[in-house]
Amino acid sequence: MTRLLLIGPPGAGKGTQAVLLAAHFGIPAISTGDIFRSNVKNETPLGVEAKGYMDRGEYVPSTLTNALIRDRLSQPDAKRGFLLDGYPRTADQVAELDKILVESSARLDVVVQLRADNKELVRRLAHRAEVEGRGDDTPDVIARRLDVYDEQTAPLIDIYVSRGLVAMIDGLGEIELVTKRIIEALNARGLELDA
Ligand code: AMP
User: Fold this and answer.
1) At a CB cut-off of 8 Å and minimum separation 6, what does 171 contact?
2) Which protein residue's CA is at the shortest distance from atom 6 of ligand 1?
3) What is the pTM of this model?
4) Are 87 and 95 in contact (CB under 8 A)?
5) What distance in angstroms lies between residue 135's CA and the mean position of ligand 1's atoms?
6) What are phi and psi of 29, to 5 degrees?
7) For ligand 1, is residue 183 a contact (CB within 6 Å)?
8) Looking at the domain assignment, is residue 193 inside a domain?
């Protein structure tokens, strides 16, 4: 049973690492951003509501995000553990996740903080804009997303540090190297495969 959070600014490589780590540990990678994007694409009521916020680089209101995560974590595959990518991002999302975990007598194992400096983040996001064409990877929206992260999400790291849960990882370098760093940090905290 492995329950992980991946926290880091836009462009730090969360999505890429989440998929690799989830495969390694045999748990689902759950990305609120991906779930919102698929709802936007399919023009569901949730997608219609979320789109404006996403296009501006703002956070979708926590009432929507919390309901979405509560539902997703109740699915059978998440009972064996999970890796959350991009949730929680605000203090009230931390509170909601705490509540969900208490209700299922579960606890987090490790919070992986993925770090990269702003210059590298902007460079990566500009590159991703060319490759993926994501609507929120334009220069203005990138700047806003980095600010929103600094204002609302970076402070959450202290909450998890005070709980002794944070593994701080340097997100610079080759993808495989960063994955290796994370797995080593998780092993050092007692998370082994088939443990
Ligand atoms: P991401 O793919 O994680 O960068 O998320 C893309 C966008 O989805 C964000 O800029 C937000 O608009 C929205 N989003 C994703 N996760 C959350 C969350 N936990 N809380 C609020 N909004 C979110």
Assistant:
1) 8, 12, 13, 17, 114, 115, 116, 178
2) 33
3) 0.95
4) no
5) 13
6) -90, 120
7) no
8) no
Point out the catalytic residue in the list 3, 37, 51, 89: 89
- Report which residue type is found at 182: I
Picking from 195, 194, 189, the residue whose alpha carbon sits closest to that of residue 4 is 189
Read off the pLDDT of residues 126-139 as tens digits, 9 standing for 90 and up: 999 899 988 899 99
pLDDT in tens, the chain (195 residues): 899 999 999 999 999 999 999 999 999 999 999 999 999 999 999 999 999 999 999 999 999 999 999 999 999 999 989 999 999 999 999 999 999 999 999 999 999 999 999 999 999 999 998 999 888 999 999 999 999 999 999 999 999 999 999 999 999 999 999 999 999 999 999 998 754
Establish if 75 belongs to a structural domain. Answer: yes
Asked whether residue 118 is domain-assigned, the answer is yes
From the list 118, 111, 115, 123, the residue with the least C-alpha distance to 146 is 118
Verify whether residue 37 is a known catalytic residue: no
Range of the domain at 80: 2-187
53 lines ligand 1 (CB under 6 A): yes
